[in-house]
């Protein structure tokens, strides 16, 4: 029997919903739970203006609490669906399903989630896709387990067979595997014709080993938005400038340079211990008709909004306050996973 034709859709294609998990005292957010809950409320309010939100909750009490908080914030609860499932933490970009579209349905790729190379316990998160699938969360979908560590934040698709990723992250996860072999594996599982590798770019305080979704993202088949740094005194300047040159050297499938949209650099944000936090505007989320943009309370927020408006014409750019998230080294895209249209009822 012939293999069904499969395609990895771009994030800007029509969506059924956005999948998130509600933060609790049992997650990484315990010490700043109140601040983070406010971010989640703002996030759900923004998502539900455009499409449904599917929210994982640890138990009935968490659901009741989340429902009350969202209702009191006047979130449209007809656009919210709760699913009870166990999870270690709320980084669903990396523990959620990577969805391929096929004729008549979808394939949910369930890669191993190892807590970013064993940095954190991930035993519950590694079972998340299987448990959501078994609970009937998805429709017209089959789960496809892959015994290989890969996080959704490590890859970005243009929907037409080109994948963007970083060598640092994939090499860190699989140090014995050559770039040629990794290219072959990614191309096979994700049904890609090309894999574009970035050798430069990182953010201090990033646990992910340079996930591409904090650095550079497709905005169209011929356009890439990326995190720039224009301060020569900043520790990121050399690497992010080198990444910008790498992106300028990439070519589309038609052999043309990509249209590039550099994002501004926020002033350094540090925690109480003077640890630099990874504030990236590239960690935006595309939803139906809009782009949700991480905002950090910095003067660069408005400039980032203008860049995204240029990169995504016709979409509303909606800032979501994400400063509490970067305390745990992630941001808006990291805590969400879009589900293509038709994956949930």
UniProtKB/TrEMBL annotation:
Task: Quote the InterPro entries the UniProt record gives.
Answer: Peptidyl-Arg-deiminase_porph (IPR007466)
Q: Which domain of life is it from?
A: Bacteria
Q: What is this protein called?
A: Agmatine deiminase family protein
Q: Which UniProt keywords apply?
A: Hydrolase
State the organism of origin. Answer: Lysobacter arenosi
